[in-house]
Write a structure and sequence with these properties.
There is one protein chain. The chain is built from one helix and five strands. With 82 residues, the protein is mostly beta strands. The protein has one domain (6-81): Beta-grasp domain (Ubiquitin-like (UB roll)). The protein has a five-stranded mixed beta sheet with strand order 2-1-5-3-4, with no helix packed on it. The longest helix is centred in the N-terminal third of the chain and has 7 residues, at 24-30. It binds FE2/S2 (inorganic) cluster.
Length: 82
């Protein structure tokens, strides 16, 4: 059975629809957002985003199953860089 598209709200106010398992970096581009990257192996943390309040590294995670709920993405905040 094919999963329902998941609504994703981005920090720039745009909304996209994706399926679980799809790539965060490519999905962000659909919303005209370029998530910064560095290592692309999950080591550096340059690509960290918050999804429904949980920090994840976009280069090594895919869009999760949600059982029908939406996802809200924010840019990860690092107080040490302020
Ligand atoms: S680009 Fe380095 S952790 Fe994702």
């Amino acid at each position: 059975m094919r999963s329902q598209p998941i609504e994703i709200k981005w920090p720039n106010g745009k909304t996209t629809f994706a399926c679980s398992g799809e790539d965060w970096l490519l999905e962000a581009k659909k919303a005209d957002i370029s998530i910064p990257t560095g290592c692309l192996t999950g080591s550096c943390g340059a690509c960290e985003i918050e999804v429904n309040g949980e920090v994840l590294r976009a280069c090594i995670h895919s869009i999760p199953r949600t059982n029908g709920s939406n996802l809200k993405v924010d840019f990860s905040y690092d107080p040490y860089w302020e």
